Amino acid sequence: MSGSFAESTLATVRSKSDLRARVAAWRAAGETVALVPTMGALHVGHGALVEAARGAADRVVASLFVNPTQFGPREDFAAYPRDEAADAAFLARVRADLLYAPTVAEMYPDGFATAVRVAGLGDVLCGAVRPGHFDGVATVVVKLLTQAAPDFAFFGEKDYQQLVIIRRVAADLDLPVRIEGVATVRDADGLAVSSRNAYLDAAQRAIAPALQGVLRAAAQRIAEGVDISDACEDGKAALIAAGFDKVDYCACVDPETLQPLAEATGPARLLAAAHLGRARLIDNIALKL
Length: 289
Known about the structure:
CATH topology of the largest domain: Rossmann fold
Number of helices: 10
Oligomer: single chain
Number of strands: 9
CATH architecture of the largest domain: 3-Layer(aba) Sandwich
CATH class of the largest domain: Alpha Beta
Shape: globular
Order of helices and strands: EHEHEHEHHHEHEHHHEEE
Distance between the termini: 37 Å
Helix content: 25-40%
CATH superfamily of the largest domain: HUPs
């Protein structure tokens, strides 16, 4: 790609007008643009998103915004880790071209009254236990996509339900952007990297990889012909036995509609969400049957 990185610190804009001016200048030079939306607390998973974006476009914008509308009243919005300086330094190292870090007032000015809701997709799995969460996600992502007007936007497959919802939103609203998923980045023991892994103490961190292990075991059993419902129920029990405090779900669904499957005769996705101390961990794997 023709974009270059020559600064030791990352250029930062905080208003949509400044963001649009930067993007317009790139477009005037014939360059393509990719967006990597984040909530900060960046790690190697975000680095993989930026790397994929750099491979697709000439310029990469990373946004940093802890979106209050996707947190429930008893969730961790106030405690969510924030360190803009560290995140900006990380993005500079992975060669993003611009950081867009708007304030809450910039994103949700006085009088803001609109929400984007994806019926069906946003009401199941995580949406069933976090009411309104995906309305907040869909709304802020639509705003970011219209503000940055990128050719591509990159999201991690770890948040698989989110990825499916954003693809549906972009298609339904005719947004001129290509939504790209990037494979989950994992630690050596299989745990999906996540900002919320920082909430785990040493003992919990030792338990956490069981989430991926249980999903793989359930997938294997389904592939061998075990009833999907039985495999998922056994998966929930295995997570509790491994030391998880609570399991929100372990489900095998259609990879596009997210509806539960009674039998596995084609592509499917196995997803789980479970609580371990302060952390709510999610993971998923593809089934090709």
